[in-house]
Each structure stands twice: as structure tokens, then as C-alpha cells.
Write a structure and sequence with these properties.
Blueprint lengths: L2 E6 L4 H11 L7 E7 L4 E7 L2 H4 L5 H4 L4 E7 L14 E5 L2 E11 L2 H10 L11 H9 L5 H10 L3 E8 L4 E5 L8 E5 L2 E5 L3 H6 L2 E5 L5 E5 L2 E5 L9 E2 L1 H6 L5 E2 L2 E2 H16 L5 E4 L5 H11 L2 E2 L3 E3 L17 H6 E3 L1 H4 L3 E6 L6 H12 L4 E6 L21 H4 L2 H8 L3 E4 L2 H8 L4 E2 L1 H4 L9
Parallel strand pairs: 14-24, 17-18, 17-21, 21-22, 22-23
Antiparallel strand pairs: 1-4, 1-10, 2-3, 2-4, 5-6, 6-7, 7-8, 8-12, 9-10, 9-11, 12-13, 15-16, 19-20
Helix pairs in contact: 5-6, 9-10, 9-16
The protein binds adenosine monophosphate.
The site of adenosine monophosphate (AMP) has 16 residues, from helix 13.
Length: about 450
């Protein structure tokens, strides 16, 4: 995960980046940063926490001067949470200054880094993104674009990147196309962002997705596209559709909302059940629950109310009060649930902890039966391409049958969307399904 955004050729560019980072907050809540340039100086502000906590002091945004800016919301998948790992990363090298924002995970970063360190390189952070800066700085090519192509040709895995120099802005998507990245237009300015919902907020017009394997450069000569990398089999992350992206984003040609709704419809086709109401686990289960209700003809209702002031950043204080976690976020609407046979729809089960707590909560609130319906297949394998998933051992479906998961969750029945059903909704090629089938499209360092 991680959200990235870049603005080229706009007065108060940092202000637009700041606003766009708000729209991408769901992609990372650990830390955020903005780097801007006025054509000679680079201005940097980064911190831990949510976007509005980091940039809320008067004068911060104003200090980020210039007409080009790049920003990043961090959700760590590689590297620890120290300040040196907060992006955009900034460096000086023989061609001037550079700032890079990265969404994804470079799966051969460890071996590249090992080699660079053996040759004398010094690393500031333990982020996989820093290897790109080293490769750029060491390249003997004469132009920046050639250096960028040479550096990135060494990389395997997921990298949607925004790279800022004094007078230009680059957007890159890895040849497998794992993570999203889109291009938009705001008057004379060019904007790049992880998701199109960021364009809506700042009033930019969505132009198109950055293509897998494409480098786009925006500078005073205009906007130019290059396709310099060896073609690879497309492996867009299907979990972006299931959970990560915002429902109002247009991702790879479809709105996430309608895809999720169709997943819910397909789930109902495959495993409907006699019940009185369908409720979502808010917010991520809402579109799928609407689809389930539509297909099954069972009434949709809100049986769980979400507290919107609790983000995912909540740190559970201690083991003894750990169970407050779900209660802090969700509370049952007793009058909706009392005496009812309830279908509860969620987008996914990872460890199984959330489902178990929710079933308990619904039963305690008077639900007569609770049927758990999951709008994606069982997660059996960890992600190495930019999603923070636990180890295989911690993934409940990697070692338990659906009946065992039902028993653990204490639900009356459990059903997942089948992989075939998911493929009927999104299409059966062009995606990475590794978390569901264990087929990893790119080999990784172990
Ligand atoms: P659990 O089964 O308790 O580990 O959590 C599953 C819930 O977390 C699901 O309802 C999803 O909405 C959400 N979820 C799925 N994948 C992730 C992830 N990689 N990071 C954070 N939350 C996630």
C-alpha cells in the first residue's frame, strides 16, 4: 500500500498535493511527506501520523514553495517506521537534486542492496526505494531519462513511482502493472496520483492510467511517454479492487464501487442463504453487501454502526484490553438485529480475528443466526508486492478448512466468493491472484 501524488506546473503545487494526500489517506496512515521545488531549491516536510496531523501547523504548506511537488502517504511493507524511511526520499547527486515517492515493493531490493553495500554504498534508510537513488547516481549514462531506464531495468516487483527533479516530474509504472497510477490535468498543470479520487478532490480531470511499463515525463517541452522496458505478463493487484482502493476511484477502466457490488452479487449467486437481513461490515463491506442484497432479494440494513473517528492507526494498548479493538470501531444496532437471521458481508478475512469478534457482537445484540459471507476467496498466501499481509502461518485460511473457520468464528455458516466467481467479475487474465492461489508472477528474494 501507500498513496503517491505529484503536481507539475501549478502555483502552490504543495497545496494541491496536500489536498490530494487527504483523498489517498486510506492507502497509508503511518506517515506522510511532501517535497516541492521552485526550480532550484527543494523544500521538504515529513512526519509520522495522518496528513492533517503532519501539515496542520500554520506556515508549513506555505513553506513548501514552487510549482512542482510530490507527496506520499506511507503504509510500511518494507523497512521500519523510522523517520529516515518516510517518503518522498530526497537526495543530491551529480545531476542535481531528486525526490522519489514509491508505492509497491521491490522484490529484489535485498540482493541489489547487498551488492551496492559490498561496493561501498552507504544507505540512509532501510527502505527498498533508496536502491533506486543509488542506481540512478551510479549510472554512467549521460541523460537523466537513460539513467532512469537503466536503474529501473534492474528492478523486479511492484513500483509505481513519481520522481521529481528541479524542472520536471516523472511517473512510472512497473512492467507488470501491480499498483495503480493515473494521470490527470488541472488547467495547465499535469497531476499524477495513485487513484482518481484524488483528482476529484482537487478539481483535476482524469486523463488516463499510466500504462504498465510506461514512463511519462512532464516538463517545459510538454508531456512525453516512453515504453522502454521488456514487456511482462500483466499482474495488476486484484486486492486493489477487493479492499484497498476507494470505491469512488476509477481503476483500470472500471469504478471500484461497481466491481465490489458485482462481487457481492456473484457471492449471492454462489452461496445465498435463508435470512431476514443483509448487513455490511462498514465501510469496506458496504458495496458487496448491497450487491448481495440485490441478488438475493434479502433486505439490506445497517446492523453495525462505524465510528468514523477511529482510523486504522489505533494502537491497541495492551493484551488485557485488546478486545476493545473492534468495539471501538463498530457498535451493533440492536433494534435492527434483535431476533433476526443475519447475513453479514465483509470484503475479506485475513487472520480471522475481526470476523470472530463481529459474529460475537451480532449474537450478543440479539441476532438469531449469523451467516458470514466474504466477497473474495480465502487468503492463503502472503503478498510480496506492496500489501502488508501477515506471514502464511497467521493467515487463517492457509491452514484451516472453511468448516474450521466457521467453528472459530462461531458463525452459523461461512462462505467465500470462489476464485472462479471473482474471475468472472474482474476477468481471468491480467491480474495477480497470488494471495488466493499462491502463484507468484515475479520471483522474490527470500
Ligand atoms: P482479520 O481477518 O481480522 O485479520 O482482518 C480482516 C479485515 O481487515 C477485513 O475485514 C478487511 O477489511 C481488512 N483488511 C484486509 N486486508 C488488510 C490489510 N492488508 N491491512 C489492513 N486491513 C486489511
Amino acid at each position: 500500500m501507500c498513496g503517491i501524488v505529484g503536481v507539475f506546473n501549478k502555483d502552490e503545487a504543495a497545496n494541491y498535493v496536500y489536498l490530494a494526500l487527504h483523498a489517498l489517506q486510506h492507502r497509508g496512515q503511518e506517515a506522510a511527506g511532501i517535497v516541492s521545488t521552485n526550480g532550484s531549491e527543494f523544500y521538504i516536510h515529513k512526519g509520522a501520523g495522518l496528513v492533517n496531523e503532519i501539515f496542520n501547523k500554520k506556515g508549513i504548506i506555505e513553506s513548501l514553495k514552487g510549482k512542482i511537488a510530490v507527496g506520499h502517504n506511507r503504509y510500511s511493507t518494507f523497512g521500519d517506521e523510522s523517520i529516515a524511511n518516510i517518503q518522498p526520499l530526497h537526495a543530491h547527486f551529480d545531476m542535481g537534486q531528486i525526490a522519489i515517492a514509491h508505492n509497491g515493493n521491490i522484490v529484489n531490493a535485498i540482493s541489489i542492496k547487498r551488492q551496492l553495500v559490498n561496493e561501498g554504498a552507504i544507505f540512509n534508510s532501510n527502505s527498498d526505494t533508496e536502491v533506486i537513488i543509488h542506481l540512478l547516481a551510479r549510472s554512467k549514462k549521460t541523460s537523466f531519462i537513460e539513467r532512469l531506464v537503466e536503474a529501473l531495468s534492474n528492478l523486479k516487483g511492484a513500483f509505481s513511482l513519481i520522481v521529481m527533479r528541479e524542472n520536471e516530474l516523472y511517473a512510472v509504472r512497473d512492467p507488470w502493472g501491480f499498483r495503480p497510477l493515473s494521470m490527470g490535468k488541472l488547467d495547465d498543470a499535469i497531476v499524477f496520483a495513485s487513484e482518481s479520487c484524488a483528482f476529484d478532490l482537487i478539481g483535476a480531470e482524469f486523463i488516463r492510467d499510466v500504462k504498465p511499463g510506461e514512463i511519462i515525463v512532464a516538463n517545459t517541452d510538454g508531456v512525453h511517454s516512453f515504453m522502454p522496458f521488456k514487456k511482462q505478463t500483466l499482474a495488476r493487484c486484484v486486492f486493489e479492487y477487493i479492499y484497498f482502493s476507494r470505491p469512488d476511484s476509477n481503476l483500470w477502466g472500471s469504478y471500484v464501487y461497481s466491481i465490489r457490488k458485482k462481487m457481492g452479487q456473484m457471492l449471492a449467486k454462489e452461496s445465498t442463504v435463508e435470512a431476514d437481513i443483509v448487513i455490511p461490515t462498514p465501510d469496506s463491506g458496504v458495496p458487496a453487501a448491497l450487491g448481495f442484497a440485490k441478488e438475493s432479494g434479502i433486505e439490506f440494513d445497517f446492523g453495525l454502526i462505524r465510528n468514523h473517528y477511529v482510523g486504522r492507526t489505533f494502537i491497541e494498548p495492551s493484551q488485557s484490553i485488546r478486545n476493545f479493538g473492534v468495539r471501538l470501531k463498530l457498535n451493533p444496532a440492536r433494534d435492527v438485529l434483535d431476533g433476526k437471521r443475519v447475513v453479514v458481508v465483509d470484503d475479506s478475512i485475513v487472520r480471522g480475528t475481526t470476523s470472530r469478534r463481529i459474529v460475537k457482537m451480532l449474537k450478543n445484540a440479539g441476532a438469531k443466526e449469523v451467516h458470514l459471507r466474504i466477497a473474495s476467496p480465502p487468503v492463503i498466501s502472503p503478498c510480496f508486492y506492496g500489501i502488508d499481509t501477515p506471514t502464511k502461518k497467521e493467515l487463517i485460511a492457509s491452514s484451516h478448512t472453511i468448516e474450521e473457520i466457521r467453528k472459530y468464528s462461531t458463525a452459523d455458516s461461512v462462505a467465500y466468493l470462489s476464485l472462479e466467481g471473482l474471475k468472472k467479475v474482474v476477468g481471468d487474465t491480467g491480474y495477480c491472484f497470488a494471495c488466493f492461489d499462491g502463484n507468484y508472477p515475479v520471483e522474490f528474494d527470500r
